[in-house]
Amino acid sequence: MARSMVDLFSGCGGLSLGFERAGFNVVFANDINPISANTYINNININKNYFYVGDINDVLKNYPQYEMFFNDIDLLSGGPPCQGFSTANRQRMINDPRNILYKSFLEILSKVKPRFFIMENVKGMLNKIDEILNDFENSLGRAYNISYAILNAKDFGIPQNRERLFIIGNNRGVDTASLFKRIHKYKCTPFTLKDAIFDLPPLGVKTIKNNTSIENKIIGYFKIEHNYQKNNFFLFINGDKNIKYVYNHKNRFNNERDVEIFTLLPQGANSLHPSINAIMPYTKRNHIFKDKYYKLKYDDVCKTITSHMKFDCNMYIHPTQPRGLSAREAARVQTFPDDFIFYGAQNSWYMQIGNAVPVKLAEIIGGEIIKCL
Asked: Range with the lowest mean pLDDT among 43-52, 85-94, 291-300?
């Protein structure tokens, strides 16, 4: 029996896909970004009419119009952007105007009262965890058992050092702290970056600026046939699927200086490495720009994939090729399956991938919640 799920601030669908694999059925989703919404609708099993593209506060203003989607919901999820969570900020989170979306999430939660809810956010929100737990209790009453944990993706086999705060609550009498203990039983040695990306087609240097429509063997393709090597990582993200194409695997323009830096830096080195002293453009501000460039290590997990990659991939230099990671390589690090296609402009692929919850981590969490239901 599929369990019902509502996903707010859904992005392109990393959390939804993991929960879908665990046995949930998405009955309603929302995100303000139309590009992310398009990717979501084309990859997640949802009727496009059940996805609202727009501000979550519009859903609240017109709640009777959407109420039918929220009846008898098993799980409500969301990761509202919250800027005001610094320990230096003495104002309560819920009253901080920068956290209006957090307040809106709580308001919808109080109306829906799902059997379970999950909120995912940056580790820094731990600074305000007592306030947050108090806000949830004020919104939901004491019927909910609520707990939280910092989960690092690399502890669950995922080739990425990514720490995030997860808050889970339920009104079914389940001890949520014990639920997190069961999630921790899935801990295992992570795959390395090499495991994740070594079998994708090599890409060369793109020398043409401001033209993302060009495709060839050097620059890469939006879609091209590919003979995958079905190693353990391929099976980890794809299962027994027979996938014949590679998607979203293209390089971006880099100037000559950056390409030289990419070439000279050894794996694991950043902007301070002596190999690039002569050409490093920020030597007078090294203390600020030490991570302006970073070459990833093949035999280690990847650093945290973030939406900053939409601007450049200088902090995500490929271990053996003079370029940044492609969007498909970043998607693999986030454990998206190879047939998950990202839509929109090339730079937006990175934004969607960086904002997502790693699919395999979501699948583990969803699977344990399903057992409780």
From this structure: 85-94
* Residue of 192, 188, 215, 194 whose CA lies nearest to 203: 215
124-178 tens-digit pLDDT: 899 889 999 999 999 998 899 999 999 999 999 999 999 999 999 999 999 999 9
**Residue linked to tokens 């323009």:** 253
Query: Helix, strand or coil for residue 292?
Result: coil
Report the alpha-carbon distance of residue 29 to residue 6 in Å, rounded.
6
Report how far residue 346's alpha carbon sits from residue 313's, in angstroms, rounded to the nearest whole number.
13
Q: Which domains does the chain have, with CATH numbers?
A: 3-188+358-372 (3.40.50.150), 193-354 (3.90.120.10)
Catalytic annotation present for 12: no
d(CA 370, CA 183): 12
Q: Which of 82, 302, 313, 372 is catalytic?
A: 82
Q: Can you give the pLDDT at residue 346? A: 95
